[in-house]
Amino acid sequence: MNQTYASSEPSRAEVDRLAGAVVIEFGSPMCGHCRAAQPLLASAFADHPRVRHVKVADGRGRPLGRSFQVKLWPTLVFLHAGSEVARLVRPGDADTIRQALAQIDAADA
Asked: Do the domain assignments include residue 5?
């Protein structure tokens, strides 16, 4: 699991070309909901070490978040081979995150 937000966000074209299982986490280091979700994410990702985790600092005028129509933080977009498989907005428990991770991780097995 990635602990820090990327210094620059990838383009949508780059995201669409990503191979394998990837989770893009849209949020902000200042967001209370985002900080509260971190222990849940750490717990869930512990069972899925092969899944790539990309943290994107989202905000006004940030094109990647707009391309995914992100409205609330954190928003987790679960991708397999660049295609969205699942999405969670403000997840409240690690089991829900684990279930979504299992969907994309199993596709790579």
From this structure: no
Contact 57, 29 (CB under 8 A): yes
Give the strand order in the sheet containing 52-57: 52-57, 21-27, 75-80, 83-89
- Tell me, yes or no, if the pTM score tops 0.90: yes
What is the rounded average pLDDT of the residues 21-38?
Answer: 97
State which residues form the domain around 81. Answer: 12-108
Burial of 43 (0-12, 13-18, 19+ CB in 10 A): middle
Residue 93 maps to a domain: yes
Whether residue 2 is contained in a domain is answered as no
Helix (H), strand (E) counts: the chain: 4, 4
Q: Which residues contact 82 (CB under 8 A, 6 or more apart)?
A: 15, 16, 17, 18, 19
Q: What are phi and psi of 21, to 5 degrees?
A: -90, 125
